[in-house]
Amino acid sequence: MLMILGFILLFLIMIIGGDRGVISLISLVGNMLLLSLAIWLMAAGAPVLLVTVGVGIIISCVTLFYQNGTNEKTKSAFTAVLITMAVLFFFIYMVVWRSEAGGLNEIQAAEDDVLYYNMNLDINMRNVATAVIILSTLGAVLDMALTVTTSVYEVSIHKPEMKLTELVESGMQIGREVIGTTVNTLLFAYLGESLLLFSYLKMQDYTLETLLNSKILFQNCVSMIFGAIACVVVMPVAAVLVGKRINIV
């Protein structure tokens, strides 16, 4: 069934998306291979955070430059993503470290399969949790940054007389229009897949206090929250960067 759905997706992308759809599909496959490489390197003992940063930068390059070309829009979006993720990296690491969110959550630790796991792993689980949040956040940030830079660039083409402040305000206005949809997408993506889990917790008579203080809820929500924060932060950064690039050119 999974292969059938995959072929349907491939067919729709090629028919509806055309050449750009094929390029997007190649980028998707490339990013999946990069994530697989990151997992292999981490399992082989490579520094988790260093691998995460390297793979994240390469994924950003593939998504922006290969898929959308090298131009003022993608250059500005790439720089905005780097700045935003560099700032959030320290906050993500600090939150994960202080909350001790790495490793198995309560449900995973209670499963029978855990008895067959090898617990002697030479991997820092807090670093793994940080890597998961960073890579989960990256997709939404790339989308928001490119949306803002593309919008500002198109506005500048049709109205070349606009000043920098007007271009930035235009990008901010467009960002405000889509930020609500982006946050909703993140919300339903992370909580929608947890409906069965929440039903299970309800059946087990978990109290609200226990649920709110559980590791499993934190792991499910922290990526969504940081993703939303990153999208909000990258919006003005991308607008200012592309506005300055356009004015210089």
Automatic annotation (TrEMBL):
Superkingdom in the source lineage: Bacteria
InterPro entries: UCP031503_TM, YibE_F
One Pfam family from the record: YibE_F
Record's keyword annotation contains Signal: no
Entry keyword annotation includes Transmembrane helix: yes
Keywords, in A-Z order: Membrane, Transmembrane, Transmembrane helix
Segments passing through the bilayer: 37-65, 77-96, 128-157, 178-201, 216-242
Protein name (database record): YibE/F family protein
Organism field: Dorea longicatena
Lineage: Bacteria, Bacillati, Bacillota, Clostridia, Lachnospirales
